[in-house]
Amino acid sequence: MTRVAIYDTTLRDGSQGEGVNFSLQDKLLLTRKLDELGVDYIEGGYPLSNPKDFEYFQAVRDLPLRHAKVVAFGMTRRKNAPAETDTCLKALLDAHTPVVTIVGKTWDFHVTNVLGTTLDENVRMIADSVAFCRSQGREVFYDAEHFFDGYQANPEYALRTLRAAADAGASVVIPCDTNGGTMPERVAEVIAAARAAVPCAVGIHCHNDCDLAVANTLAAVRAGATQVQGTMNGIGERCGNVDLVSVIANLAVKYGRDVLVPGSLARLTEASRYVYEIANMNFRSGQPFVGASAFAHKGGMHTHAVAKDPTTYEHITPELVGNERRILVSELSGQSTILSKTTKYQLGSDKALMGKILTAVQDLEHAGYEFEAAEASFDLLVKKAAGLYRPWFERLAYRVNIEARADGVPVTEATVKLRIGGETQFEVSEGDGPVNALDAALRKALVPAYPNLAGVQLVDYKVRVVNPKEGTAARVRVVIESRDGTDVWGTVGVSENVVEASWLALVDSIEYKLFKDAEQGK
Ligand SMILES: CC(=O)SCCNC(=O)CCNC(=O)[C@H](O)C(C)(C)COP(=O)(O)OP(=O)(O)OC[C@H]1O[C@@H](n2cnc3c(N)ncnc32)[C@H](O)[C@@H]1OP(=O)(O)O
Ligand SMILES: CC(=O)C(=O)O
């Protein structure tokens, strides 16, 4: 099957998304990651646009890329002026990339109403720009902006612009659904018409304004497009570009097409999450293929079947795209969920115990607990129900004091009193807030006996009101995420008092860490 070239424009079109702003360093890190993933082309930016993009093309030359080619992007020459002196084309060539992508107008309405020029001059702008970059030794891709709307309005003219680019030496012409409003069957028809009109390869560039960008891109490939442009996780202007993650996975797994470099598909999840991190965006847990929930099973009937054979509720095996299966514990669980979450304790034959754990989960969830993001608290619950729990320390008391001083800066102080191995420990600590102060005092008291606790970091803290109708007397749920050198774990506490809820979640985190290290012989 023909290879489909993957052209990533996260660094250019992705950065046109609201709230996305990559630093130069971010762009270089992403370039390295995209190359590791095995994409064929990385569109690094618009060198004329700003000094950062210009510098990127200087700096990227020092990156040792294994596979990907870096591409500079820019528009056709300005109207009524020669290509040789055009500042945009000069910046494109000064980027010294092996490939340049030139975007041009194909919709007659844009030519007359936006560029303010004639249809003939626009065709010359395209041809001159492509020919000039070719004469300077660059491979040229031609992005046909608004091609689908242009083809709808004036098909002869739209095809004429494509032919101008191909005749001038473009190796790929790429019809763009710039406004993202085209339906999949129409995309297929128009791509077929474009292929019939030019001798060179045809690509596709879709936006997601109708939530159809993936379907449109796949329709284009089925109609013969051999280059796919898009962004990681679909970030981009308005509703975004096509999500390359889904496109790559569907092409490889569903259509058996040759994409990326061999063996790369299993890096998809890691690459997607890396892009979210660098873009400072939250992961989309329901994102197909790579989201944390993409292979998470919650309903009791589902988990029961998945335990017998995962294909009962999974369309592919998660490892294929580097993701993992998760079994979620909740009030919707049945005994088989509990069974699959407790395999390490080998409690399977004890039906009464499974029932007891399930009832405890349902009662606690009714009271406001949630164990989906707090598997460490669930683990402690199982230990307690199965008689495997032993206290590492005894909680005698805690107190938190917040003093608002005259300078307006509140000072928080926490005191904890614990019994550890028969000794009473009493420690005081200041912190940025009650949770920070309590955490610091807890560790001060415990680290002398359990030095591994020094390596625990609190990485996330979330509070959610459980029963908002009660106003300020409402119960709150605190979920804390903790991390050490090897693992990340979540714990939960619920109370009418936010400090107490935090304390419960904190203590669970510490206890889980102590059990975990003991089980791992640390
Ligand atoms: C569909 C897409 O995603 S295309 C890429 C869109 N991305 C961006 O625009 C981000 C980067 N852009 C920029 O940094 C700036 O817009 C620049 C540097 C390109 C141009 O900046 P300026 O010269 O100040 O122009 P400005 O942005 O105000 O307007 C765009 C100009 O480009 C012209 N233009 C637009 N498309 C094209 C084209 N394909 N070929 C030639 N000229 C074009 C417009 O007519 C307008 O020129 P005019 O004011 O003489 O009519
Ligand atoms: C080229 C481009 O980004 C577009 O037409 O959407």
Automatic annotation (TrEMBL):
Catalysed reactions, semicolon-separated: pyruvate + acetyl-CoA + H2O = (3R)-citramalate + CoA + H(+)
A Gene Ontology molecular function term of the record: (R)-citramalate synthase activity
Pathway: Amino-acid biosynthesis; L-isoleucine biosynthesis; 2-oxobutanoate from pyruvate: step 1/3
Broadest EC class assigned to this enzyme: transferase
Enzyme Commission code: 2.3.3.21
Example GO BP: L-leucine biosynthetic process
One family name in Pfam for this protein: HMGL-like
Keyword field: Acyltransferase, Amino-acid biosynthesis, Branched-chain amino acid biosynthesis, Isoleucine biosynthesis, Transferase
Transmembrane helix found in the keyword field: no
Superkingdom to which the source organism belongs: Bacteria
Residue runs in coiled coils: none
UniProt domain Pyruvate carboxyltransferase: residue ranges: 4-269
Family, per entry: Belongs to the alpha-IPM synthase/homocitrate synthase family.
NCBIfam families on file: citramal_synth (TIGR00977)
Name assigned to this protein: Citramalate synthase
Organism: Urbifossiella limnaea
Gene name tied to this protein: leuA_2
